[in-house]
Amino acid sequence: MFTHDALDRSRREIRLVRLAPVTLADPKAAIALELQHVSLDDGVAYAAMSYVWGDQRNPVEVDINNKPFSIGRNLHAGLERFREQGIDSWLWIDAICIQQSNTDEKSWQVDQMRDVYRLADHVQIWLGPATVDSDAAMDFLARFGARALACGAMDLNAMDYRDPHKQEIYDYIDVYKAGNAPLTDSQLGRFILDLLNEEGMLTPPPQNNLQAGIQDLLQRDYWVRVWIMQEVALAKEATLFCGSKSVSLDAFDATLTAVWYTLAAGVIPRYPEYDGFGTALWSWTMLFRVKALVARRQHRAGEPIPLAQIVVEYLDAPGRPHYAATDPRDIVYSLLGINGEEERLGMRPDYSRSFVDVFAEFTRAVLERGGGGTTPFSLFCVAPKAGASPLPSWVPDWTDVGRHGLGVNPHDALASTQPAAWMEPWEVWKRGDVGSGTVLRHPGCRVDTITEVMTPPEWTHATEWDVLNAKIKDVDAWLRSIVEFAGLPREGRGLRWGVEDADKQGKEGDEEDLDGGEENETGDEEKGDEEEENEKDEENEEEGDEQDEDEQEEEEEEEDEEEEEEEEEEEEDEEEEDEEEEDQRGDEEDRIWRTILRDRRDGIRLENFRSGRLMNKEERNLISTIFRREHIDLDSLTQAQADFVTDRRGPLPQLCADPGSMTLAEQVAFLPREWPQRVGNENRHTTLFKTAGGFIGAGHESVRPGDLVTILHQEKHPIVLRPRGQAADAGFTLQGYAYVDGIMYGEFLCTPPEPGQKFKKLKGTGINSVGEYWITRDQKGYKRTSEDGGEPDPGKRVPGPKCEVFEIY
């Protein structure tokens, strides 16, 4: 049996193997390999192999330096293919070139893998054995690959709203369809046109194998293996093998990028004759988002590749895991080499540590960075785990994230909510005391204790990959439960509740204001005449310097009175603004539906009302009627309600492809039927709760009475924590994020004035932090005035809720 000799760590040694050539006499002879030690510093020419280990049961024996050695079947199939191709270069293969049973060697060799793949002349990628479908796809890639590279197809991005290529493509195809010679020789336009006319892309399976073959290639286990991230990203050149066929990795990438672009960038709707293009791929477009290829493009552009960008996944897996590893620790260790030292998060591979320790250290490092690039990460991302887990509650099971995604609503990640707005970290946080090991220390403040929880509804999943596509099983039962839990009246308030009365009151108020204004003007005139007479009498009685002093005192008194009147007017204006805002936010019924909608205009993904515009009473009445499943009389709709139904930034465009083709009556019938179902789906795995102080919110279905609603530093959502015991130092476990109506925009941190105290609102003043939060904000922040009612004292501020540091286990 072959055994590994020790490597010289001081020389940065690695092992390389070389295939013995096949003989005509025995083409099926056992795989034979020659193995040698070399130093990475010697500039030896070699290639590296990238493949999937696969099932290691029933291994196959090969000869290494004339001694038997067992390898996995997928690796054996790849070596047979390389031998048939006559590949005789030195190869680095991890399963053979690292002594896998030696933990110490494995740790430092894994730490060198960045250099191994970066310095390799070529990377040979083995996708696995061929199928009839995959052969059709490989032939297609071989025919289109070189042209795709030449025309710059790899740079196409269907998600770029500033897409500079779309018009070039449209111009070329439009002129071509008109029967004229193209005005310009656009390689890209010609390429996309030929792609649109490719027979296999217009003919779905089973009549043609091409589209099924593309699915086959993209669903291979290879793209799931987390190790390939750095192997593909760092490769100078790479060739992809599938069965007996091969294509360059860049040609593969460029061609499939063009296919994805053609499907997703709006080309097909512009040219209906190509409606059949890629029909079997429409539901598989997420397969085209291959993380390793994205990382390769970033590396080539000299851009950093934050580790959070790779492991943090908000979306469902596309019919296969996002990433996976046989050893959970490799989810972290495999990525450390993809960047330089600055992106390693201070970690090194160490296989003597448990996966719990590795996941905890990695999560803490990513939390401190807030994610990376365009991928935010915070405690919001950590969903409560189902069942017992050895991991701390604040640490995601990254294995499960790779398989299914984070399991949180990605639209909530983009929400404009800021319950901790302006909150600065407490001093202990500034010193970096964030806990260690499996304990996370996080500053924040307590909001309230949960006292009641609504029984969660049931959701259904079509497949194991449809975590975010879970559908509420009985939307009507769910809506009835909401009304009952909230204690709302059985009958709704109707479309015109408060609208006509408000108009009438407004008119009466206007008349009263006019009458009062006339009386005030008369009174002011009378008062002015009296003052003039008094002043004349005083002028006759006073003489010389005494007269001047009296006049000066009167002027000072008048100025003081004017300042006090201005301050009173400002306070009255601010009170009116607060009353108006309170009226816009609505009553108890509005609180419930606002919570279900997460304060979004469409209840799905559009901006929050608080950051956009607040709903008026008529819109709130319509929403209440819709979610109570009550009849909507078209003739009773107000203009504002009709505008809400037809609004392009309302819910309707999220529910149907072409709402403009529907009449208002059809839209009014469609919206109540479909919108509650979609909003119910968006509330997946959440339920309503009440708190002791009267707050209502929505949190993970695991929340229960006794849980604590908190606002934590830098979190965009309130976080629910569960006390681990009665003792003050028992700590907490994380129970997910929540929406809590009335605290989502920093309101809770702002303390209103106490009775009898004079306060003045300031605009944009910020916060100081010395163990407590001292709040002065434009929304609800107040600042103490001096006792005589003069200018505010800049040294005194109203204290907000007390800060503490929560220990989360």
UniProtKB/TrEMBL annotation:
Sequence segments annotated as region (Disordered): 497-590, 778-800
Residue spans of biased composition, Acidic residues class: 509-590
Domain Heterokaryon incompatibility: 46-231
Biased composition (Basic and acidic residues): 497-508, 778-787
InterPro entries, per database record: HET, HetReg/Transcr_Mod
Pfam families in alphabetical order: HET (PF06985), Het-6_barrel (PF26639)
Protein name listed in UniProt: Heterokaryon incompatibility domain-containing protein
